Amino acid sequence: MGERKKDSDRRVGRRALLIGGAAAAVGTSVLARDELARLWWRMPSVEKPRKAGEVDFRGARWVAASSANWRRADRPDDYDIDRVIIHVTQGSFDSAVKVFQDPGHGAAAHYIVRKDGHITQMIRELDVAYHAGNRDFNERSVGIEHEGFVDRPKDFTDAMYAASARLTARICARYDLPVDREHIIGHVEVPGTDHTDPGPHWDWDRYIPLVRKARTAQAKA
């Protein structure tokens, strides 16, 4: 709940500064009509059209989180995305979906990966999910939850690792992020958090090569 209150005040993003700078430099009278139209959609007060139920990762199932657990945005135009944050639900897939749909919970991630590799998206990558416990990291990251418990290594199945790696590879490609431990981090590594996930049994030495392999395969497809 505290995180939601702390994260609720919208600030002017970098796109407003970029647009203002461009207008001052060249003057709106000499901007081409199509350029003006393009910049209009990048204004902080203008919302791009969206399709209900649309997902950012092909094959994911859409289940909407409560609007109380995320903030509408237009990333990466207003906030750069430079991190993927790995979480563990500390519970079942169904319980994670339920709490992310609870407006009183105050938190939710963009995605949940089930043990069998099924992926559910609950918040668009455009928007700021309250998942990291740190406003700055919320604004610049995509959060991925994984079904299970940090002290049960058997919860981290082959299907889960493979599906999560494909998802993270696609996110890294979309935002041009290097596939490394600086840009793919655990919740425990977020400054100021009191969480320990994904825990000592999450196999980073296995996961990062899987993400690299998936990104290479996607690039060739």
Automatic annotation (TrEMBL):
<keyword id="KW-0961">Cell wall biogenesis/degradation</keyword>
<dbReference type="GO" id="GO:0008745">
    <property type="term" value="F:N-acetylmuramoyl-L-alanine amidase activity"/>
</dbReference>
<keyword id="KW-0378">Hydrolase</keyword>
<dbReference type="InterPro" id="IPR036505">
    <property type="entry name" value="Amidase/PGRP_sf"/>
</dbReference>
<dbReference type="InterPro" id="IPR051206">
    <property type="entry name" value="NAMLAA_amidase_2"/>
</dbReference>
<dbReference type="Pfam" id="PF01510">
    <property type="entry name" value="Amidase_2"/>
</dbReference>
<dbReference type="GO" id="GO:0071555">
    <property type="term" value="P:cell wall organization"/>
</dbReference>
<dbReference type="InterPro" id="IPR002502">
    <property type="entry name" value="Amidase_domain"/>
</dbReference>
<dbReference type="GO" id="GO:0009253">
    <property type="term" value="P:peptidoglycan catabolic process"/>
</dbReference>
<protein>
    <recommendedName>
        <fullName>N-acetylmuramoyl-L-alanine amidase</fullName>
        <ecNumber>3.5.1.28</ecNumber>
    </recommendedName>
</protein>
<dbReference type="GO" id="GO:0009254">
    <property type="term" value="P:peptidoglycan turnover"/>
</dbReference>
<feature type="domain" description="N-acetylmuramoyl-L-alanine amidase">
    <location>
        <begin position="70"/>
        <end position="199"/>
    </location>
</feature>
